[in-house]
Amino acid sequence: MKFVIDSPDQLGKVIRASRKAMDMRQDDAAGSIGVSENFLGKVERGGETVQWGKLFQVMKELGLSLSVEVPDEFSARVEASLQGKAARGKTSSSREAE
């Protein structure tokens, strides 16, 4: 099921509801994910200053994913830009290996 998220508060509520639906206590979830209970609480309260990497770690461990809907009128340009960066990233990775 998809939910429209337009604020950290809404994302936090979805994360909290998902954790509770899994019958996980906050401290147990934090421990199994590898973040502090304080951090997980901050995420679930919609804290606006959370670390992106840890946020995505929490979401991944709870089986959540995030997607962005790009308006059709410029989606092709965005996709091309992302593919170009991916190709450049592969090139730089192969250079580093040499």
Weakly predicted, low-confidence segments: none
What fraction, in percent, of the residue positions are helical?
Answer: 55-70%
Structural class: mainly alpha
Assembly classification: single chain
**Second rung of CATH, namely the architecture of the largest domain:** Orthogonal Bundle
CATH H-level superfamily title of the largest domain: lambda repressor-like DNA-binding domains
| Overall average residue pLDDT | 89
| Beta-strand percent range | under 5%
State the separation between the terminal residues, measured CA to CA. Answer: 45 Å
Largest sheet: none
Total domain count: 2
- The tally of beta strands, per DSSP, is 0
Q: What's the helix and strand layout?
A:
Elements (H helix, E strand, L loop, with lengths): L7 H14 L4 H8 L3 H8 L7 H10 L10 H26 L1
Can you put this structure into words, describing what you see?
With 98 residues, the chain is mostly helical. The chain folds into two domains: 8-61, 434 Repressor (Amino-terminal Domain), CATH 1.10.260.40; 69-98. It is 67% helix and 0% strand. It contains five helices and no strands. The longest helix has 26 residues, at 72-97. The protein is elongated and about 45 Å long. The N and C termini lie far apart (45 Å). The mean pLDDT is 89.
